[in-house]
Each structure stands twice: as C-alpha cells, then as structure tokens.
Specification:
Helices cover 69% and strands 0% of the residues. It contains 6 helices and no strands. It starts with a helix and ends in a 27-residue tail after the last helix. The relative contact order is 0.13. The mean pLDDT is 91.
Amino acid sequence: MAMACFIFYAYLTGRVDQSAYILMGIWLLGGFVIQVVVGVLELLQGNKTGGNIFLFFSAFFMLVTGLEMIFNYFAAMNGWVTDPRLSGWAWLPLAATLLLWTPAYFKSPLSLLLVVLSLDIAVPLVALMDLQVVTAAWAPVVAGYALLVAGMLGLYTAAALVLNNAYERIMLPTGTPLLRISIPSTDATSPYKY
C-alpha cells in the first residue's frame, strides 16, 4: 500500500509525469499480488475488516489502476482519446466505500486509523479531480501529500507489526484504538456477537 501511495504522491505533485504511467502500472500490478494474498490470509484468520479492505484495495487501487495506467500510456503513445471522467465515476463509489468503512478503523491501532483518515482525504479528491468537478491547482497537491502521509504511516504500522511480533513486545508503538467498546448482539445466532 505504501508503494502505491508514494507512486501517486510522485505523480500528483509533479515529481513524475505521464511518461511514467507504464512503470507506475507495473509497480501497481506487483502490489496487487501482495495485497490479494494478504487479503485472503486476513479473511482466513477471521479479520473481516482487514481482509475486505486489502481485497478492495488490491482489486481497484492496484489491479484496475495499474492496468489503466498501462492502457493510458499506450493511448498517449498512439493518440487515442480517452475520457478521464469515467475513472472519476469509478473512483466515486470507491471513495464512498472507504468513507463508510472508516468507522471500523476506530477500533484499530491509531497508526492504522491515521492511514485510513489520510486516504479519506486523498481518494475523494482523486475522484473529484477525475470527474473534473475539482480543478483547482491545490487539489492534486493536497491529495498527493495525504497519500504520502498514508504511505509513511502504512510503512510505520507494517514495521511495528513485524518488529512487535518478532520480539513479542512493543518495539514500535502504534497507539491505542480510539474506540474499545463492543456492543453485544442480542441474537444468539449472530456471527457478530461478542
């Protein structure tokens, strides 16, 4: 995830241009492989929040966006005209899904919640920019820096997970969840009972 965030940061803030699309696409396809495996493993371990978000990101932010960038590279090379607003329409429900799933992360370590909150800034902005609803010069910069923050926090959280598990103690703190409540289900057959 951090790799994708860094790539989008570089593109949105003008550090690379459209000539990098094919390389960006290839890197995103590599990230897809990792994220789909992690998503399946998370689901198998019973982590529905993590599993769903990893599969969601692997499919749309990595696979589809990677293929789209490779296509856009060849489109630019061959003079094919494409309408970027279609991507905006696709990113719009992705942004809505991310925003609607965010409350689940209030029960996660603080560093992971901050990743999601940073993405909550970037993803809707990207959708609105692709839709050409937001055309101000500040928008790609804000989205880019929100992605950079998400990427750095994602790296930190991943490092904490690896080191804390390896040493079986807190080597890198991730912060306590903002919410620690569980609401018991009244339905005895509910899979959501605590």
